[in-house]
């Protein structure tokens, strides 16, 4: 077989494996690399070159930037401000959600924006008594349109911009995509609001997401944090020094209740053990009574009450976590009480047993007891790895939903804006701007090193890195020219609009069953060859491929964003085309109308 035929056979096998969907997409990409090398289409250097391509570096860095923006509560803040501005009207709220998803996608990609907004949308749908299925699919489609608002919106945009340079043309600038992306967003939002309720099913979510936005208030009410407690440090010379803990008497101070005593080393002081210097006496009661007790007993207020009305219960620096004592935990049999300090800076706010509050009392813990702990977010997050207790809710999820503009959010926004400026002005290559932004997020401690590694979708990185050599092989073997000539024979030469329509159809159809990134990597060399064969500029052709690549709207497997909403929206496989097909046809009409006006043939 000729090299062109061989490369088309490898292409067909790759697409078949993607459609078969029995192997991980990353494995298919690696097998494609190996097949290209084994058939002699590329050498070893070319087969592995995709993993070091600047496009891959830029895309990987965007995942880190996206994680930083989401984890610091910026998306939560945006969602809350959205509700405050537009109110709870169903139509206005839907328009606002779709618009927000489109804008976020332009910054943190479709997968990031859908993941960030999904819990918020489910909560909003519940509050306005609207089926989430009427909001989630239009939101995902608006996000797909929003990926065409800026260069950072999708890996596809980076790929076509890089392809334009390699074809000898000018790269697409940062906001060039918005010329066609903005009309697509407007059209998609309009169809989602007007057509969505008529064609989409009304089903309940199969994966309900908890509303953690008012988590602190609910926990405070559940643990009855009304009076709170005071931690009072014993000063040298205090009359309580040397008094056995069991005989500590505060009856002279009506309204004050002794909860417990904790030693300076963190242990409970009980029974005949004497109270010593720097021990902490925990009491509850009215503030005026406690204020009289403190100077008379030579005590110092180490911690004021934390109650349901206290804004300090959960904020950018501190938070709360509910934990359960599991069987065989070393905590079983240990004395605990509200106000007790645990670990470095975790304070027990309340204890419940069998679903009932134990009040301001000291008791021995048993398996199944639940404790409400208060402390810094770093200490709370360490509980994830603590085998002595079981966390009820993920601290990371609670913080993202309940603490808008969390710690270091200002740094994250500053780094993001700096990256956008570098990309918009073209001061440095995209890979350098993205890598610098990702590194800055780590160095400024917006995200940890491990968090940055976890944020990267390595499946996407391997997929793109493995398919770049296939794109190269299709181009260098003559397969792109072969397919392009066949396409031209069908549509005829001198008919650029028909060429665009044909390329849009091919790209969109393949993109419904194969990753849009993989689809574009396959179609780009064919599109460039077709443009060169007919004497058409590559820029309108590549911009159309970018639009068609983003139009993955007819199946849940077309993009991870579509798959994310399937369970929460209660969708079935056949539901997507009902709204997706009209949106796809409108996209095609808008692309054919707008692109040639801006990028001349």
Automatic annotation (TrEMBL):
Entry annotated with the keyword Transport: yes
Stored PROSITE patterns: RCK_C
Transmembrane region(s): 51-69, 89-122, 134-154, 174-195, 413-443, 497-529, 541-559, 579-599
Domain RCK C-terminal: 308-389
Classification via InterPro entries: Cit_transptr-like_dom, DASS-Related_Transporters, RCK_C, RCK_C_sf
Subcellular location: Membrane
Membrane topology: Multi-pass membrane protein
Pfam family, one: CitMHS
Keywords carried by this UniProt record: Membrane, Repeat, Transmembrane, Transmembrane helix, Transport
Main location: membrane
Protein name listed in UniProt: SLC13 family permease
Originating species: Terrabacter ginsenosidimutans
